[in-house]
Design brief:
Elements: H1 4-7, H2 14-46, H3 48-51, H4 77-83, H5 87-92, H6 94-106, H7 111-122, H8 128-143, H9 155-164, H10 174-194, H11 196-203
């Protein structure tokens, strides 16, 4: 026997309405925790901005378009060559730091340099309260398990760092920072020096005017005036 509700839509009794209502409400309740979790994760991702107060460390302020390490007009080939002398030399110059950060973004490993920058800023803290606030932010952003920008640390270094966050000292992140520094120096830095955008800066291509395409000469009637044809070969 066919369902009478299909034959007679007007028989949609209140019981059916109640059933549909609770079904919708049940789905809404299941979705609510998922929606509520998003602001928390987003808030964690944005905490890094509290550390990077100086304009020179803000993303995008000094970085060029995709494919460029830095603005060509601001870097000479001589300056770019100096970046290859040592990793310290590269990071000590703002243009070099910007260029290296841009390179790490192409490799999806920019969390390493961001952590290093955050640690440098942390060591400049002038009060215990500032140390505690920044230590908590760095830990939640880069150190703790499943952090938004978790860096690659060995178990011992992670544990030692975690234990000192509650009562942080200026040296709290020294071991972790050194680990990430060595990782970048031994792995990312050599690839940076071999990358085509960096080599282009060294060769000065980014500063040179593009070479003009050589065009073939077009002959005119005047070019043939006074020239007598040779029919001997015919």
């Amino acid at each position: 026997m066919e369902n009478p509700l299909l034959l007679f839509p007007q028989l949609n009794i209140s019981a059916s309405k109640d059933k549909l209502y609770y079904k919708v409400m049940k789905s809404a309740v299941k979705e609510e925790p998922h929606k509520a979790s998003k602001p928390g994760a987003k808030q964690k991702r944005n905490r890094l901005s509290l550390l990077l107060q100086k304009p020179e460390f803000r993303e995008g302020d000094h970085l060029g378009k995709p494919g460029n390490l830095t603005k060509a007009a601001s870097v000479s080939p001589e300056e770019a060559v100096k970046w290859g002398e040592s990793f310290d030399k590269l990071l000590s110059e703002k243009a070099g730091l910007d260029a290296f950060t841009k390179f790490l973004k192409t490799e999806f490993s920019e969390e390493n340099i961001e952590f290093w920058i955050a640690c440098e800023d942390y060591k400049k803290s002038k009060s215990a309260h500032e140390l505690l606030t920044k230590a908590k932010t760095i830990f939640e952003t880069f150190i703790q398990q499943d952090a938004p920008k978790e860096v690659n640390l060995d178990f011992h270094t992670r544990e030692v760092t975690s234990q000192s966050v509650g009562q942080p000292l200026p040296s709290t992140f020294d071991a972790a920072q050194s680990t990430v520094y060595r990782l970048m120096e031994q792995d990312s830095y050599p690839r940076f020096l071999r990358s085509e955008p960096y080599l282009s800066l060294v060769r000065g291509r980014s500063r040179a005017r593009p070479a003009l395409r050589r065009r073939s000469r077009s002959f005119t009637v005047n070019d043939f005036q006074g020239v007598r044809p040779d029919f001997s070969a015919w």
